[in-house]
Write a structure and sequence with these properties.
The complex is a heterodimer of chains A (474) and B (487).
Chain A: E1 3-14, H1 53-65, E2 69-70, E3 73-74, E4 77-80, E5 90-93, E6 100-101, E7 104-109, E8 112-125, E9 129-133, E10 136-140, E11 147-153, H2 160-176, E12 189-199, E13 209-214, H3 217-236, E14 244-249, E15 254-260, E16 270-271, E17 278-279, H4 282-290, H5 296-305, H6 311-318, H7 321-330, H8 337-355, H9 366-377, H10 383-396, H11 400-406, H12 415-428, H13 430-437, H14 444-454, H15 461-473
Parallel strand pairs in A: 13-14
Antiparallel strand pairs in A: 1-11, 1-12, 2-6, 3-17, 4-5, 4-16, 6-8, 7-8, 8-11, 9-10, 12-13, 14-15
Chain B: H1 9-18, H2 23-41, E1 44-47, H3 49-64, E2 75-79, H4 106-113, E3 117-122, H5 156-163, E4 169-174, H6 180-186, E5 189-192, E6 212-217, H7 220-230, E7 262-266, H8 276-291, E8 295-299, H9 307-322, H10 340-351, H11 354-367, H12 373-393, E9 399-403, H13 419-424, H14 430-435, E10 438-446, E11 452-459, H15 464-476
Parallel strand pairs in B: 2-3, 2-4, 7-8, 7-9
Antiparallel strand pairs in B: 1-3, 4-6, 5-6, 5-10, 9-11, 10-11
Helix pairs in contact in B: 2-3, 5-6, 7-15, 9-11, 9-12
Chain lengths: 474, 487
């Protein structure tokens, strides 16, 4: 029998707010534990929550970017459960009246355009961070109460590839929209995945298994693939899939039972009496809509249409907002978009990946790259020299012109020097010379290479080509 | 001894202003009275004498420097569920043993700004759950009029200390009658302000949608003065209302006329089983108001009879979540366990008293999956009906007159074995908490056994001025509030 999988995601995204969701404590990743806390986020007697308005703006903007309808009236609820990561032992969230309803994104999965729909986005508060050490658990409440939104998709995906494309798009949109940095290492984007499997043609969905709290895209992919296989083999061996919550063990590449349906929590949701419902006016929504930043798809179009870049370049440059922003910054200092693009796609991304750095950590700044390109465009150096300067600055820092002088990279266009190297190349390489004369124009490239080598890369390639042609054609 | 402890805020303010006494004199008299009587009354849980005297000295210095703050140098007793920085805040529960408040409640900040002295912390029913202060885990409080009787609750300590002249005034909180009922039982004046009038920030929550902080005093005028200090918008409390606070104290005029006022009498509030002496005193008070010029009109609150059922669903549901934070992890009592769940169970089993546990279980039950619609959701709908009743009634009258309680203060232990019987006594006070409007309780007579009887004056939303005016007119022309218990 053939089976098909149905997948839905609940993605938690930490918003970029200065302060927590319901108190004025700052959020600072990596701060000394329990230093950004107050009576409210510690759940002290008598302390009350006050809504963070910036968080409401950000979730609504996220909703607008994802095509949601903004709910003009939404409210807060208490979700009750006892665990040391929740100081009040209830979480303030939105149960039946979330801020954003519906929505969809269209993404390319393995060459095919697919549209994935959203059920809702709701606002809630983050939990504290628990660390388990020998014989004890440590709780850091710095993260407790930070602004967290949950993007809930419909069960509309059918493979790990779908889920990956969906999450990648969500992340990109959140970053471009200024909603969240989505730094997964810092827990700013985590997903719960719902997976079920049914025989192809069956109308009802199979029993739903939820895999909780994963931050790495690779783990999520692996967990989905493992879970689909597991459920199919359960069905094929005549068993039934149990509705349950599972965890994922990345070391073993397996999911494991955490909580079965019988032991499911009864969260006893009820309206939060300490907070008033949220009312968002049409005018406010339009104001926010007018403030929405450019999305990657729009940037790609602009790069192609206005800057004349190939589609491929535009795609690579906009894949990450950091890189795209860096590109745009460089374009403030130069007109040569293709040269900037080549440097970023070539040297920059290679060196960043080799050294495990992000573009903001690069010693080559947008201004410095613009000056390297300026030197090339003025034919003061050739492209190879430019790459050497780039790599030197990337590794050691420094000024493009000083490095050019120190390394003697200034291009040689002086005829007498070029003539000497050209004559030498022709004299020492009779075979390519003959081939060229016999009608194979590509053979001139070998001679060209010899001249560049002799000049230690400093010869002006255009001038060399002209001189070789003159001598051989003559 | 000048017996300054027996004076009202209004009287002391004059004496302080004229230099007849100092704040240190007042605090000394109050402390002497506590020394003499609190062994029998049992109102105070904690009292920092040195701190109180230091505050009094500072107040006297301020006055010399020209300050005329409204509450300058007046000592106020604080119900043990309000956070005062650096002081314990036990809510009369073992589970908060060792907790020291790291911040001031907004009402405490306001009292400080107005120059008041934080005197000491007074007893209450555990987490404000009770009507007799007998559910306190930390002490027994007696009614100053007869030590065999309860002072009422949950603000029993707040009423008893004022009644026994062990404080000039006090703060209480009212979730289902917890200011008005003990005020009535102890012969004091108490006000439950309109929901949203007084910030709840720093008030340990029992039922968030019902709780309000208010004054307990020796006169209506004092309640007006103290209430004015407590009111006002607070950005720290999202349920607080941003509107002007009238000058409650100054606006009270000494003419005792009620001419032109329409006072409503709800037939449903003279309930079956009501003590005839209570009914008579209240009906006499109604007649008295008529003699002062008020027109008495019949009004109906047909859904008020559901108030007890609705109240005990909504209040316990909210409480079940509000009290979840007392878990032994961050502060207060902790009894270790093999895992967090075990720690919670052990700590909460040992830390909470029986009444608190009963209400947490009840609240957890009504919110449970499958029961929510039948209980909580339905209760919210009926709550709206109760509120609509008041809206209709206030179209016909300026304020409503009613008893506060079906009986005067009963004997200790009389109802502790029958919680339902005790719950039913809240029938006349809970409707106002559910509807959100304001109400005042003041003395209007005595039962033949010598226990005080209270008159309730209920006002529309934010009509505190009206009920204070009616109460003040009544008080100006009667002597009930001047009677003091012999200790």
């Amino acid at each position: 029998m053939k089976y098909e999988a149905t997948i839905g995601l609940e993605t938690h995204v930490m918003q970029k707010t200065n302060t927590k969701m319901f108190c004025s404590c700052k959020y600072e990743y990596g701060a000394e534990p329990n230093t950004h806390v107050c009576p409210t986020c510690l759940g002290y007697p008598g302390a009350l929550p006050v809504m963070n308005e910036k968080a409401i703006e950000l979730i609504c903007k996220a909703g607008l970017l994802l095509g949601c309808e903004i709910n003009p009236y939404s409210k807060w609820d208490r979700k009750n459960y006892f665990y040391p990561d929740m100081s009040k032992n209830y979480q303030i969230t939105q149960a039946d009246e979330p801020l954003c309803l519906g929505g969809q994104i269209t993404v390319e999965v393995e060459g095919e355009l697919k549209t994935f729909t959203l059920e809702r986005i709701h606002q809630e508060e983050n939990a504290a961070k628990n660390t388990h050490v020998a014989g004890a658990s440590l709780v850091d409440y710095n993260r407790a109460g930070t602004a967290l939104m949950e993007i809930v998709s419909n069960p509309c995906m059918s493979s790990a590839a779908d889920a990956l494309a969906y999450m990648t798009a969500i992340k990109q949109i959140m970053q471009y929209g200024g909603i969240s940095n989505c730094d997964q290492e810092k827990g700013q984007m985590r997903s719960d995945v719902n997976v079920s499997v049914r025989p192809v043609g069956q109308k009802e969905l199979g029993a739903k298994v939820e895999i909780k709290n994963m931050n790495s895209f690779a783990f999520i992919q692996d967990a989905i693939e493992y879970e689909i296989d597991r459920q199919i083999s359960v069905l094929e061996s005549g068993g039934t899939v149990v509705q349950e919550t599972r965890g994922y063990n990345p070391d073993r590449g397996e999911t494991f039972t955490q909580r079965t349906k019988e032991n499911a929590h009864d969260y006893r949701y009820f309206p939060e009496p300490d907070l008033m419902p949220v009312k968002v006016s049409k005018e406010q929504i339009e104001q926010w809509r007018s403030e929405l930043p450019e999305m990657p798809a729009q940037r790609r179009v602009r790069y192609v249409e206005e800057l004349g870049l190939p589609e491929y370049d535009a795609g690579v440059l906009t894949a990450s907002m950091d890189v795209s922003d860096w590109f745009e910054e460089t374009m403030k200092h130069t007109q040569n978009a293709k040269a900037v693009s080549n440097f970023i796609m070539g040297e920059m991304l290679r060196l960043l990946s080799e050294q495990g750095l992000t573009i903001s950590e690069s010693r080559v700044t947008p201004e410095k790259l613009a000056r390297i390109i300026e030197l090339i465009d003025a034919k003061t150096i050739n492209t190879g020299g430019g790459k050497q300067i780039f790599e030197t600055i990337f590794n050691e820092g420094g000024d493009p012109k000083e490095i050019m002088e120190a390394k003697g990279l200034a291009q040689v266009s002086d005829d007498s020097a070029l003539e000497g190297w050209a004559d030498e190349a022709i004299a020492n390489n009779p075979k390519p010379v003959e081939e060229y004369k016999a009608g194979n124009p590509a053979s001139i490239n070998f001679l060209m290479g010899q001249v560049m080598k002799a000049s230690r890369g400093k010869a002006n390639p255009g001038a060399v080509m002209q001189m070789l042609k003159q001598k051989l054609d003559g | 001894m000048a017996d300054l402890n027996k004076c009202t805020i209004a009287e002391l303010s004059e004496k302080l202003a004229s230099g007849e006494c100092t704040s240190v004199d007042i605090v000394n008299d109050v402390l002497a009275s506590i020394d003499a009587n609190d062994g029998k009354v049992g109102a105070y849980l904690t009292l920092d004498r040195e701190d109180a005297l230091a505050q009094a000295e500072a107040a006297d210095e301020k006055r010399v420097a020209g300050s005329t703050l409204p509450m300058l140098g007046i000592p106020v007793a604080i119900k043990d569920l309000l956070n005062v920085k650096g002081q314990p805040c036990t809510c009369s529960s073992k589970i908060l043993e060792g907790y020291i408040a790291p911040y001031d409640a907004t009402v405490i900040s306001k009292l400080r700004e107005a120059g008041a002295i934080m005197l000491g912390r007074v007893n209450m029913d555990e987490f404000a759950m009770g009507s007799s202060t007998e559910s306190s885990a930390l002490g027994k409080t007696s009614n100053p009029w007869n030590f065999d009787h309860v002072p009422g609750g949950s603000s029993g300590g707040s009423a008893a200390c004022v009644s026994a002249d062990e404080a000039i005034a006090s703060l209480g909180s009212d979730t289902g009658g917890s200011i008005r009922q003990p005020a009535a039982f102890c012969g004091c004046v108490g006000v439950k302000p309109t929901y949203g009038r007084v910030s709840r920030y720093g008030l340990t929550a029992f039922a968030s949608s019902l709780d309000q902080i208010g004054p307990i005093t020796k006169s209506v005028k004092d309640s007006a003065i103290l209430l004015e200090t407590l009111c006002g918008y607070d950005p720290m409390d999202s349920s607080s209302i941003d509107m002007d606070v009238p000058a409650f104290g100054k606006n009270l005029t000494d003419d005792a006329s009620l001419a032109g006022m329409k006072l409503g009498l709800p037939k449903e509030f003279f309930v079956e089983g009501m003590d005839p002496e209570v009914e008579k005193s209240v009906r006499d008070a109604v007649e008295h108001c008529k003699s002062l010029g008020a027109e008495i009109v019949d009004v109906s609150l047909p859904n008020a009879k559901y108030a007890i059922a609705v109240y005990y669903i909504i209040a316990t549901a909210e409480a079940s979540a509000n009290l979840a934070r007392f878990d032994g992890i961050r502060y207060g009592m902790r009894i270790d366990g093999k895992d967090p769940a075990d720690l919670y169970a052990k700590t909460r089993s040992a830390g909470f008293g029986q009444e608190v546990k009963r209400r947490i279980i009840l609240g957890t039950y009504v919110l449970s999956s499958g029961y929510y619609d039948a209980y909580y959701k339905k209760a919210q709908k009926v709550r709206t009906l109760v509120r609509n009743d008041f809206t209709e009634a206030f179209k016909q009258c300026d304020a409503i007159l009613a008893p506060v309680t079906p009986t005067p203060a009963y004997k200790k232990g009389e109802k502790t074995d029958d919680p339902l019987k005790m719950y039913l006594d809240d029938i006349l006070t809970t409707p106002t908490n559910l509807a959100g409007n304001c109400a005042l309780s003041l003395p209007c007579g005595f039962a033949s056994n010598g226990m005080p009887i209270g008159l309730q004056i209920i006002g529309d939303d934010f009509q505190e001025e009206t009920i204070l005016k009616v109460g003040h007119a009544y008080e100006q022309s009667t002597e009930w509030h001047k009677a003091r218990p012999s200790l």
